[in-house]
Amino acid sequence: MIKSKKMAGRAILMAGPPGTGKTAIALAMSHELGNKVPFCPMVGSEVFSSEIKKTEVLMENFRRAIGLRIKESKEVYEGEVTELTPVETENPMGGYGKTVSHVIIGLKTAKGTKQLKLDPTIYESLQKEKVEVGDVIYIEANSGAVKRQGRSDTFAAEFDLEAEEYVPLPKGDVHKKKEVIQDVTLHDLDMANAKPQGGQDILSMVGQLIKSKKTEITDKLRKEINKVVNKYIDQGIAELVPGVLFIDEVHMLDLETFTYLHRALESAIAPIVIFATNRGRCLVRGTDDIISPHGIPLDLLDRLLIIRTTPYNQKDMEAIIKLRANTEGHVLDDEALVTLSEIGTRSTLRYVVQLLTPAALTAKTNGRTAISKQDILEVSTLFLDAKSSARILTENKDKFMR
Ligand SMILES: Nc1ncnc2c1ncn2[C@@H]1O[C@H](COP(=O)(O)OP(=O)(O)OP(=O)(O)O)[C@@H](O)[C@H]1O
Ligand SMILES: [Mg+2]
């Protein structure tokens, strides 16, 4: 639903007992959406910071969750880097050290090669993007902004540990007009236009939406930016990409922030908001006596699409534990897996997942590579889950200090 872009301005609530995978699903979502669709996770209690207003925290995250894809035709120099030489001179101000006076860069395309002599500020951008010989990059002629597109695929045989993106050698001339696409969030735009010197790392146009730069992000600045954004959308230069604002433990918000959220959801530019909570009926924070399902005021609750998450059964837990052990590089024998899932049904999935590492260490100390039932039983007496700990507290309450 998110990918089809039909959910903007709507809100979803995932409700279910602890350990039923609400936070896990949110993480999985952000991975699946990739880096083109913004995903901004936060926890309800984050709004209670001593320095920033509650609603300001929310608004900032709201704007982090709204993307803008900007298409521009630009004059660029593009190619595979064949040479990258900073040329140094003695520091003209006297003193020690040398300064870069200019940088020589060679760019190659399928059609030809060109050598450019560039300003030292561009050298900084080149370093920021970690450009090396053999990378395919483009440099914007007007702003000098540099964008690294990937490694040239002539080097695809290189043995690389990190996943690299390989791109073909660009066609056409080095110096040309190019359709450039940038993905930014509204928050990026706020920042680029607020900071006195922002905008170097973000490409040119975005950093100059507004002529006079201010030092702070204010409501007024945001309004101005929205105006320009709307104009770009109308002109077909930009496209809105509603992302996801994920608010975990939403019962931690209070009446004021709920009201603010409700209003923000109605605005024309809004992301998809996903809430999660493990609370049943409880007090709405910031009120004296309003009890409501999930601690959410009824009028907001009324517009949510609610997804229920239910506890995993033993078979589900086995599957999840197995996956988890694989990811963490632990080997489990079958008996250990069953034991873990049994403990999981009595305590929580989160608890048994956390037992994996200590159990693996115990197995290793005993000279074994696979985790056995015995290791699980041993660590489960050393580390308690919340329920057992609470039980021990009540059973021994006279032995503890008050
Ligand atoms: N489907 C799943 N696949 C893999 N791991 C999962 C899955 N569901 C839950 N887990 C793991 O189980 C543990 C608990 O899940 P999660 O943190 O998502 O619960 P939750 O519903 O957010 O609980 P709470 O209400 O307490 O915040 C985590 O370690 C999580 O990684
Ligand atoms: Mg959670």
UniProtKB/TrEMBL annotation:
Entry GO CC: histone acetyltransferase complex; nucleus
Domain AAA+ ATPase: residue ranges: 8-298
Q: What SUPFAM superfamilies does the record point to?
A: P-loop containing nucleoside triphosphate hydrolases
Q: What keywords would UniProt list here?
A: ATP-binding, Cell cycle, Cell division, Chromatin regulator, DNA damage, DNA recombination, DNA repair, Helicase, Hydrolase, Nucleotide-binding, Nucleus, Transcription, Transcription regulation
Q: The organism sits in which domain of life?
A: Eukaryota
* Localization per record: Nucleus
- Report the GO molecular function annotations: ATP binding; DNA helicase activity; hydrolase activity; transcription coregulator activity
Question: Which reactions fall under this protein's catalytic activity?
Answer: ATP + H2O = ADP + phosphate + H(+)
Q: Supply the EC number(s).
A: 3.6.4.12
Q: Which GO terms describe its biological process?
A: cell division; DNA recombination; DNA repair; DNA repair-dependent chromatin remodeling; negative regulation of signal transduction; positive regulation of DNA-templated transcription; positive regulation of gene expression; regulation of canonical Wnt signaling pathway
Family statement: Belongs to the RuvB family.
Query: Which purpose does this protein serve, as stated in its record?
Result: Proposed core component of the chromatin remodeling Ino80 complex which is involved in transcriptional regulation, DNA replication and probably DNA repair.
Task: Kindly provide the name given to this protein in its UniProt entry.
Answer: RuvB-like helicase
The organism named in the record is: Diaphorina citri (Asian citrus psyllid)
| Protein encoded by which gene | LOC103517570
